[in-house]
């Protein structure tokens, strides 16, 4: 999720859906003069059904103009009256309370979780996305899916990439790394004259690189929707590469890996960070940089870029779920002009639809990386599971702890968490 700002609560409207479609008269053919409710002769137009009321919730995006844009999108919809509610900080707490006890947001943004599905709070949206399912990154859709049903339509996405400074690599005689061993070797050669080879966070990359390391080995957080995806010796091999980077990593930076300042200031020749930092990097370095996916472990692994973002969902307690689904389909599947504007005008983000993404000239290499290498953590990957894995990686990276033993500890925690979710 993008970081929210602290703004005054602005609720344009927050009413729940109340009205239903007005009933039409009988279609039975009668003789004589029909009653007024059925007297629809040639040239007489049937009254249009009244649009239902829908409430749509957003968290407060920090970028200027987003609130005005989403309000404009809602006003352009003709089939329902959509009231946009802009929520203050701690959106998740307020949303969870509303999902459980009301007032009901018919349509809302957030992340699909197993708990929300198990509590029957979400409406399946497979019929909504059906015709264009292939126009989304498959891993991104898998992250919206529980028990074979899809519950969220991605609105926009963000990704992380490996930025590298071309001139630094050229001076060191280093090619952009394609494998983990090449990354380790490049980082060592680039660490000189007060510059470190790589910055991936002040925790030595434990938090930012957990997923990419798994994917580099051809593994995942969870597999088959039920078991630990990294209960495999290859995971320990990949994790051990973090410790091999010791001495080549920038640590103790004034900002963490999400901020491109260390890279812009020339403190690191390469940095793993969010693609949304591209405009800042471009303003400073012009064309003296490139972007890469995180390298593969070996020929049996794969390069990757994490993809994530918020999705649009429909509340199961909505009084008008079909109308809510129609609105979600219209906004996030049919109105590609709105989708492109929402993703690109208010900060550098990417449209979730691949066909729309391909139309963004500034996306360039990033669009290709998302299409070919985009990976997402699924709804079964919880904060407890993530903490266990990141803590294990931290001990491996900083302390040189045994990768196999630390991986086993994390596997046991994740097994227990998956057991809880399946109970």
UniProtKB/TrEMBL annotation:
| Positions of region (Disordered) | 25-46
Task: Name the UniProt key words of this record, in alphabetical order.
Answer: Signal, Transport
Q: Which InterPro entries match?
A: SBP (IPR006059), TAT_signal (IPR006311)
Q: Where is the signal peptide?
A: 1-22
Q: Does the keyword Signal apply?
A: yes
Query: One matching Pfam family, short form?
Result: SBP_bac_1
List the PROSITE patterns: PROKAR_LIPOPROTEIN, TAT
Coiled coil ranges: none
Q: Which SUPFAM superfamilies match?
A: Periplasmic binding protein-like II (SSF53850)
The record ties this protein, via PANTHER family, to:
MALTOSE-BINDING PERIPLASMIC PROTEIN, MALTOSE_MALTODEXTRIN-BINDING PERIPLASMIC PROTEIN
Family, according to the entry, reads as follows:
Belongs to the bacterial solute-binding protein 1 family.
Full protein name: Sugar ABC transporter substrate-binding protein
- Source organism of this protein record: Amycolatopsis oliviviridis
